[in-house]
Description:
271 residues, alpha/beta, 12 helices, 14% strand
Amino acid sequence: MKTQLGATALEQVLRDAKAENRAALIGYIPAGFPTVEGCKAAIDVLVEAGFDAIEIGYPYSDPVMDGPIIQEAADLALRNGVKAKDVMATLAHASATGAAAVVMTYWNPIEQFGADSFANAIAAAGGSGVITPDLSFEQAHPWKESATKAGINTIFVVAPSTTAERLQKVTSITSGFVYAASLMGVTGTRNSISHSAQELVARIREVTDLPIAVGLGVSTPDQAREVAKYADGVIIGSALIKELLGKSLDEGLSNLKRLAESLASATKGAR
């Protein structure tokens, strides 16, 4: 993917979507789920369906933000013996499709890996950045320094409960996009998207010009269309994983293709 000078692939994807007057569509899947190769096949399906960016989950045994569906998928990946090298290989595969690719991970794996080494590994795999849901503003500066040296984005999560003062602080060290959690709690599919998501996006826009992507609970084409009207990016996770859980790979990929195409159509036709 060609990018403007100095821009990551993620930044370019978001600029391109804005120029086309639409929200970017971002899909989440844990590395190694349902298998290492099955995960790569699922990524191919998402990109072919029209997803702009892929968020690779770093499977972790003690998640704080993951709902039951993502936990089940991550547990399966861990039982499959997924290691850091598999996460980076999956990231490289996603990047090679032409989509932007990022990793979502809790802080502990970065700390174990070493911040500089982790950031450099992400960059070497063609990754655009890292989402760190449990890394606070107060503890984030060493990581920000490592990521900046490696030329990758630092993506932080804010929630409806985040105060105006803290929004200012968190967005000041964020790059790529601001991850707006649509509601308090953990990931998962829900019947409706809280009005607090739109209110949060409006509050974020008061303190930064960065793109804003909404995740947590966005699971149907109608919900994606609703969020795409006011956000710069729509993040889908649990709904995609649900199509693969407990099914043969062929059946799961077929189901995933149908949902992914519906989500892409809804997002692109929202405005």
